[in-house]
Amino acid sequence: MRILFLTHSFNSLAQRLYLELTARGHEVSVEFDISDAVTLEAVALYRPDLIIAPFLKRAIPEAIWRKQVCLIVHPGIKGDRGPSALDWAILNGESEWGVTVLQAAAEMDAGDIWAEARFAMRAASKSSLYRNEVTEAAVAAVLEAVTKFESGDFVPEPLDYSRPDIRGQWHPIMRQEDRAIAWRQDDTAAVLRKIRSADGFPGVLDEVLGLPCYLYDAHPAEGLRGTPGEVIAHNNGAICRATTNGAVWIGHLKEKRDGELAFKLPAAMVLGDRLASVPEVADLPPPFDKGGLGGISQPPPSSATNQIPPNPPLSKGGIASSWRDIRYEEKNSIGFLHFDFYNGAMGTQQCERLLHAYLAATRRDTRVIVLAGGADFWSNGIHLNLIEAADSPADASWANINAINDLARAIIETDNQVTLSALCGNAGAGGAFLALAADRVVAREGVVLNPHYKAMGNLYGSEYWTYLLPRRVGAERAAEITENRLPVGARQADKIGLIGDCFAGDAAAFWRQVEEFAGGLATDAPDLLAEKRQRRGHDEAQKPLADYRAEELANMKRNFYGFDPSYHVARYNFVHKVPHSRTPRHLALHRKVGKKPVS
Ligand code: THG
Questions:
Q1: Of 444, 459, 425, 423, nearest to 552 (Cα)?
Q2: Which residue of 44, 127, 267, 430 has the lowest C-beta tally within 10 Å?
Q3: Looking at ligand 1, which residue's alpha carbon is closest to its atom 5?
Q4: Ligand 1 pocket list (CB less than 6 A)
């Protein structure tokens, strides 16, 4: 079929559905919701068999839905309606939720129901639920609806609230008052629920140390107590605020400004001097406290040797910051390095901290290092928000790309362990290439990769991609992948050799399979390491890694400092969420030259 996506943006769900449908032989063209006139034009140009709205905030014009079936992907159970579906489900503490595919009609979300898929709720942010449970349910429901549509004789079910299986209801758009935190009354669970219901957008409006701002990226903080609402500590950019029965870490803030100039940044950066009197809690010292488990997110002091302190001292006052972005654990001679950075963005310091943690891991007596990334993202490369906030974005870009390159080089040059990138979450841009620095790459089946930079203002890219990509997929396919700017699904990535394997199931099933796979690598480690040393030596003799880096960075220098400001403009638009003014040509098949509208 010819399927047209009408969508606010090509977000992760739209990308995943695009991949699932094209993999089943459908042709998918995309049009962003710019205006009714543009939407009408897109439909006239493409003449789709079916219209799907994976992520649409505005009404589809009547002139379209009267004439043909338009399927809306709604992140709620049957009968649920309104623009804040998932927000309400989280705030109300629903234990089970779902995704409904319904037909567009005059009344918003009140059209006939084509399919529904359910899932158990998890204590996680809205965007985490969206990227995992909602996405998997949406894929199932959309594929079911598409099959029903193709059958030609399916009659969708009208929304009838008298039916017992229709348990949802209309919910209005959620306002800030609906989720405002009452610090003197709310316990940790309530605070987390409120912040999570609004994370990544719009955030919970609050005041921190006198500064009005939106809160994001909340985690429980064990072992810390204080006067409810008070900022009692900070660590690696995150702040810790006491609740009535504990405390929470808040990683990111967005200042509330009247102009549209503010964007999300690490909390400590937004607060600046306001934090002067707030104590910084040290991480538990590096690395591997408590028999191989624990935090290793702090670079060792300059005097540090390769040795691991046998009996690490406790941090200040014995305070343990329970949540860490970088964690390391060992199981049966396999080291797992987790790096869970907000939105997968890795700033210069995060790259440096991760490099230190990685190097510490390489000094352990292990056979395999698993680069586990984070729960929702493996990595998305350099940190565009931090770069945007810098006095010199060009200098900050340069520092960041060099820091991530240092990390990539350390992974490529590791010769004492077999390295495995295990992607439970998506990876994009530099993050996708960083994954390829490991000897082996595996991904969860639902993972979407975006191994290209071009969409960010024609950025050339680095992370040794000119070495890493062609050696996996060949020069021709490498050019295709980087030029096309399209997402690549894990299955497809496996088929073309971009990755080595992909595993079905949810996160838990994925990690079981990763452990088994890594166990196999551990068994074969002596042979694999001999092969790796030989290959690396051969590659280095052919063309030194330093040359790949120098060539890439020469291009990047032009992107950062040169005459053409495209990268700076694209980054500004990305960071400030400037609405799209048109659909990129590579997605809008119907706007390729030569297409004429049919009336
Ligand atoms: N029919 C048609 N078009 C649609 C839907 C539909 N487009 C997408 C839409 N469903 C998705 N669901 C909703 C439901 C409610 C609202 C928006 C999308 C809504 N919006 C407020 C408004 O338009 O005034 C404003 C909300 C806001 O400010 O974000 O209530 O079923 N044809």
A1: 459
A2: 44
A3: 108
A4: 53, 56-60, 65, 72, 82-83, 104-105, 108-109, 111, 173
Same domain, 157 and 186: no
For 133, phi then psi, to 5°, come to -60, -45
Residues 209 and 354 in one domain: no
Distance (Å) from CA 320 to ligand 1 centroid? 45
Q: Within this chain, do residues 235 and 331 fall inside the same structural domain, yes or no?
A: no
| Token output for 218 | 């909340």
| Rounded-to-integer distance, Cα 466 and Cα 86, Å | 41
pLDDT in tens, 227-278: 999 999 999 899 999 999 999 999 999 999 987 689 999 999 999 999 999 9
Which residue lies with its CA nearest to atom 28 of ligand 1?
A: 173
Residue position matching structure tokens 């009714």: 36
> 104 CA distance to ligand 1 centroid (A)?
10
- Together in a domain, 374 and 495: yes
Assess whether 491 and 400 both reside in one domain: yes
CB 249 within 8 A of CB 219: yes
Helical H segments across 474-544, by residue range: 475-484, 490-495, 507-542
Q: Which domain holds residue 356?
A: 325-575
Residues 126 and 213 in one domain: no
Residues 530 and 416 in one domain: yes
Rounded CA-CA distance 523/332 in Å is: 11
The torsion angles phi and psi of 171, rounded to 5 degrees, stand at -125, 130
Condensed to tens digits (0 to 9), the pLDDT of residues 130-178 reads 999 999 999 999 999 999 999 999 999 999 999 999 999 999 999 999 9
Query: For the chain (length 599 residues), average pLDDT per consecutive 10?
Result: 98 98 98 98 98 98 98 98 98 98 98 98 98 98 98 97 97 98 98 98 98 97 93 95 97 90 95 96 50 40 33 35 84 96 97 98 98 98 98 98 98 98 98 98 98 96 98 98 97 98 96 98 98 98 98 98 98 95 95 71
* pTM, entire model: 0.94
> DSSP labels for 530-593?
HHHHHHHHHHHHHS-HHHHHHHHHHHHHHHHHSS--HHHHHHHHHHTTPPPSS--TTT-GGGST
